[in-house]
Amino acid sequence: ESIKEVMAPGALDPLTKELIYLAVSASNGCAYCIASHGAAAKKAGMTAEMLGELMAIVGMANETNSLANGYRVPVDERLEKLF
Q1: Are the C-beta atoms of residues 35 and 21 closer than 8 Å to each other?
Q2: Is 3 contained in some domain?
Q3: How many CB atoms lie within 10 A of CB 17?
Q4: Which residues form the domain of 23?
């Protein structure tokens, strides 16, 4: 799938798609992608408060993912069944 297909109207609204792209770009450290999708997210309605909250979530997710992987935390079977 091309980026145009993925970012086209769908089940997720345009702002949500741009916020996801921005979060992944920040996590991967892609300066170009951060600038591009940050601008697109702002155009789609992202506020400064939303950006701050998004970056807090990205930081927390990276931290807890690293801890869970490092400690080899097993997946709870109940959660697997729900997902």
Answers
A1: no
A2: yes
A3: 20
A4: 1-49
Instruction: Give me 17's structure tokens.
Output: 């798609």
Total domains in the chain come to: 1
The two three-digit tokens of residue 19, written as one number:
């916020």
Reduced to 3 states (helix: H, G, I; strand: E, B; else coil), residue 47 is: coil
- Please give the Cα distance from 49 to 53 (Å, whole number): 6
Tell me how far the alpha carbon of residue 7 is from its chain's centroid.
14
Q: What is the pLDDT of residues 19-74, one digit of tens each?
A: 999 999 999 999 999 999 999 999 999 999 999 999 999 999 999 999 999 999 99
Give the domain CATH number at 31.
1.20.1290.10
Judge residue 14's burial from the number of C-beta atoms within 10 Å of its C-beta, 0-12 exposed, 13-18 middle, 19 or more buried. middle
